[in-house]
Amino acid sequence: MSSNLAVIVLAAGKGKRMKSALPKVLHPLLGEPQVNYVIKAVSALKPKLLLVVVGKKFDELREVLPEGVKLVIQPQPLGTGNAVSCCLPELVDFSGEVMVVNGDTPLIRSETLISLFDTHLKQGNEATLLTAFPPDSTGYGRIIRKGGQVVKIVEEKDALPEEKKISEVNTGFYIFRKRALFNYLNRIKKTNQAGEYYLTDLIGLLVADGFKVGALVAEDWRETANVNSRRDLIEAQKIIQERINFFWLDNGVTIVNPDLTYIGPEVKLARDVTILPLSFLKGKTRVGEGSVIGPSVELKDCQIGKRVCISYSWGEDAVIKDEAQVGPFARLRGGTFIGKKARVGTFVEIKKSKIGKESKVPHLSYLGDATVGDKVNIGAGTITCNFDGKEKHPTFIEDEAFVGSDTMLIAPIKIGKGSITGAGSVLTRDVPAGSLAIERSEQKIIKDWAKRRKRDSKKGGD
Ligand code: UD1
Ligand code: CA
């Protein structure tokens, strides 16, 4: 569907009810800011222009919004009507319909917005609203109808007791003809309980002047639930979590406990993946066929191959190739690459390093800025000492090298192909291929010392 449509997403409100330093629309749902769900839903309508209204202090918002949106600044949060007014300069050269959506309604589906747009065009309306019948209408603007026709919207704060009883509410999704915004937004007054310019007043003004205003009732009120508080956020998260997990269950993925599994909206899973409880898959993580993730795994922006097993571990921006095994208790930081059939075991931290095919880092190691070849064995307690207090230095460990337990590799350093390092060595120089590097003081043997001590302590009798 491509259309003469501009979309305005309102995201500049203070979000007082969140009691947070973070702007309300940035509060995350499964790792994604809630406003991004709304932006994704409206993007399906392929608008010619996608404007997001932000407050002037919201630098954080600029960083996380998807590409292709244009930011419009609302200098003061003077109300939703004022927020739309701030967009008018951007719409001067546009001709078509303008959809306005609240940024705090993350559950909306594109299909519903497409129906709203179809209704608007078919009915030839000046404005069309999406309304709903939630079980509790508290907090929403109420839809006032006369003879079945919408005549105005009354905000909760300004509603008369009998108006408060109305169960049809304004969902915060509207389509206007461009001229309706240009001709009527400047007529909105802030003479209401909140002292704000309400976008919702536009409806009453249009109807009073004889324009046709229509409404589409949402089939499922839950899609239009708005998130004003942290409680609302958790309710919304439950619904999104269920939608995403059920989608994957229907598409060949086993999720052992969907209530305890958190999969972000941008994650992609192949078939026969198994996700064990308490796993969090975030960002653009991809998991290949037959892999087993969990229990207790958190992955952000990771690329996981086929038949990989990861348990009790954390990874960010890491690539793990087919049949590798990770964990329990590994931490894979940015720029980690784990080769095919490699093994990274318990209490291992890896940063910006490549581990070659079939290599093993089974326990208690730190590898940073390292390039490890194929079939390398890294003994327990090995550390790449990559930081001299000022700069980071690289370590190279070539194919089939055997690094003995507790080796300290003072970088920059190279451990040649097939070489061996003695356990407990502190190595400061390159090790040529095929050699042994050992750095320890010689072992002393004092014969019978232990036996004598035992005998002496018996005699002493204290
Ligand atoms: C709004 C509607 C209400 C509707 C409800 C549905 C108005 C006056 N009321 O109420 O009828 O039932 O949504 O969810 O519109 N915003 C700005 N700039 C501002 C104020 C708000 O960009 O100056 C943004 C907010 O970030 C938010 C959206 O507009 O994303 C809605 O604002 P909010 O304060 O949450 O409105 P509600 O009280 O929920
Ligand atoms: Ca709201």
Describe the protein.
Helices cover 20% and strands 31% of the residues. By secondary structure, it is an alpha/beta fold. It folds into two domains: 5-224, Spore Coat Polysaccharide Biosynthesis Protein SpsA, Chain A, CATH 3.90.550; 344-451, 3 Solenoid (UDP N-Acetylglucosamine Acyltransferase, domain 1), CATH 2.160.10.10. The longest helix has 20 residues, at 230-249. The chain binds uridine-diphosphate-N-acetylglucosamine and calcium ion.
Summarize the structure.
The chain has about 450 residues and is of the alpha/beta class.
Give the tags.
Spore Coat Polysaccharide Biosynthesis Protein SpsA, Chain A; 9-stranded parallel sheet; binds calcium ion; UDP N-Acetylglucosamine Acyltransferase, domain 1; binds uridine-diphosphate-N-acetylglucosamine; 2 domains; 31% strand; 12-stranded parallel sheet
